[in-house]
Amino acid sequence: MALERTAVNPWPWSVELGYNQGEIVTGHTRTLYCAGQTAMDGDGKPQHDGDMAAQLALTLDNLEAVLAKAGMSLANLVRLNVYTTDVDLLFQHYGVLAARLGAAGAAPSTTMLGVTRLAIPNLLVELEATAVA
């Protein structure tokens, strides 16, 4: 059975912001639960201290690397949790995230949470995702 995704949006405002309130997924054969991805290099060292835009871009690169290793892409995302130590600063750079998701045709159900800190000091954003294929 082919993968089918049906957006669930009782209100139009979330679609205008680039995400769905919910998604019904049928016919999937694989589900990938991604650990939180951050702005870490290949050696596990944090990058781009204090630069939200650069951290967000690298975090997305790292998420895409996990997805690719599983034979998936951003288009397969059905859930995205965004954790940040500075919600206002993240909103200033939200276009980085929205552009990448939009280019992939992805509008996963999304939650954004402001947190006191992330596990690694100086990191500003973490993305936790679920994908289906």
Automatic annotation (TrEMBL):
SUPFAM superfamilies: YjgF-like. This is Enamine deaminase RidA. It holds the Pfam family Ribonuc_L-PSP. Coiled coil: none annotated. InterPro entries: RutC-like_sf (IPR035959), YjgF/YER057c/UK114 (IPR006175).
